[in-house]
Amino acid sequence: MRRTVIAGNWKMNMTPDATRAFITELAPMVEGMNKCDIVLCVPYVDIGPAVDAARGTNIHIGAENVHFAKSGAYTGEISAQMLCAVGTEYVIVGHSERRQYFGETDTTVNLRAKAALDAGLKVILCLGDVKEERLAGITDEVVRMQTKLDLAGIDAEQLKSVIIAYEPVWAIGTGLTATPEQADETCGVIRHAIAELYGEEAAEEITIQYGGSMNDQNAEELLSKVNVDGGLIGGASLKCDKFTAIVTAAN
Fold this sequence. Notes:
This protein is of the alpha/beta class and about 250 residues long. About 45% of the residues lie in helices and about 15% in strands.
């Protein structure tokens, strides 16, 4: 049975002190909720404090991006080895905001994913359609192509450490949300693409999250869909009560 994963993406929010306080408050609220994995992906400066605060709890810590080189003249970047050294377990690659604002392409997303996997990190690989693609009726083609490009050169054993996060880009930060039926259908398209690449068994085992404005109000219905195995949570992951409600729905 594939694992449900609820992951918070804090984006550019929270100081180290705020991180410690947040996790200290959250930990007892989600204690014993072990039917899903709970992950907080935090800014680089918050990783050390987050790892310390989460020690001994059921909360796992991730980063929001990673570079594809082990070291070198890449000002402002962080390598997978650096993330591992400070206790990071997960990393997001290919988030729509990285693609939109910072020039990420399927090629660089693929390189970052492979570097993270080679270092032993679990990867949350984001992909999804923009509004124009949805309106043009080419969502299926877009996510199928992204799936295949982003996973190029990643073998079946490495795939076991990959989570796919379907992000309808038109639903991120807009207040819009894909209907549960839309989310289920598109996650199903991604699962079919995985089956084409790796076989039916791998497709049935891989966790596919929904990542477009899931919150405490809509989580239960979205998570009830057969192809939705969790959520990559933005704004709602910055509030302990809202994030706990989503974890509760997943449990």
